Amino acid sequence: MTIAKKSSETTATGVTQPNRARRSLVGAAAISAVGAGLGLPLVAQAQGAYPNRPLKIVIPWPPGQATDLVGRAIGMGLTKVLGQTVVADNKAGAGGTIGTDIVAKAPADGYTLLAASAGPVSVAPLLQKTPYDVSKDFTAIALTGLSPYVLVTNPNFPAKTAAEFVKLVKANPDKYTFATSGTGATAHLVAEAFNAALGLKAVHVPYKGSSPALADVLAGRVDYCLETAAATMPFVKDGRLKGLGVSLEKGSIVTPGIPALATAVNIPGFNLGAWAGLMGPAGLPADVVDRLAKAMRQVMQSDELKELFMRIGIEIDFREQADFLKYLEATRVQFTDVIKRNNIKLEGT
């Protein structure tokens, strides 16, 4: 995948959270703190004409969802740094593809941006026909963070470590079950990638969302799942789930005490997360991309924003365009391989 670069040249669920209403209130307070306490100097308008009017960040998910909280916090930070109001605009629906398409078709002037995430950008185009072409219709600006997937089981599951888990499941093909938030969801692909990397054979039990999937793991009706830290860590912290490993190769600060699966079960290179980033339409001028990237670097240094990210289970991983594109391509290759190996198809496609 080669998403549009800085000039006109063309070149991976939202994160689902439990207790959405409660966390939305907490997130809203934290976002307000980001705006109030950023403490960053305004960029003088004399540095260039852009931006000379308000900007809009389209958030293709409902209010209160993790990508929404991230997008709003980024918008408030950019408002402070750029000296222009950045408005959050929720355009939810169709797994994030509706709002994503709005940005794909927006003018390439830097005034309409996308709170981008793995589902509609890295996953959906590999499984279905989307109204946009990821390889042609977007300019990557910056990666902001990653939410690791956590391998979790019911506390009564006999394995106490990831290594014991792998040994047990591998010795009993198709005996154990794993839950996902749906066939073709990012969590499904991550789970299949994990199973394939270790030669595990288990029965897939798809649900309509991470909440019902986790509910059955909590109840012991399904044996395990890999879901985002945002969704799983509240249950791990209160002892209702057992966290055995995380999907980021170097581990994660948002999952303290839980080892990286890459080292815990010896699968070097296993490095997948639910990413969040900033994109715009294809053809954004190079100076606009540079201006936004520099502003984003300042925003991401805010202590208040770091605290918000930690609270919603996202680790800051700031990468400007070139490194963001490398990450997107690596993710595309991994997910394409998983889909082909497991013959994953959505109903009706």
UniProtKB/TrEMBL annotation:
Keywords: Membrane, Transmembrane, Transmembrane helix. Gene3D superfamilies: Bordetella uptake gene, domain 1, Periplasmic binding protein-like II. InterPro entries: BUG, Bug_dom1, TAT_signal. Pfam families: TctC. The chain crosses the membrane at residues 25-44. Belongs to the UPF0065 (bug) family. PANTHER family: BLR1237 PROTEIN, TRICARBOXYLATE-BINDING PROTEIN. This is Tripartite tricarboxylate transporter substrate binding protein. It comes from Zwartia hollandica. The lineage of its organism: Bacteria, Pseudomonadati, Pseudomonadota, Betaproteobacteria, Burkholderiales.
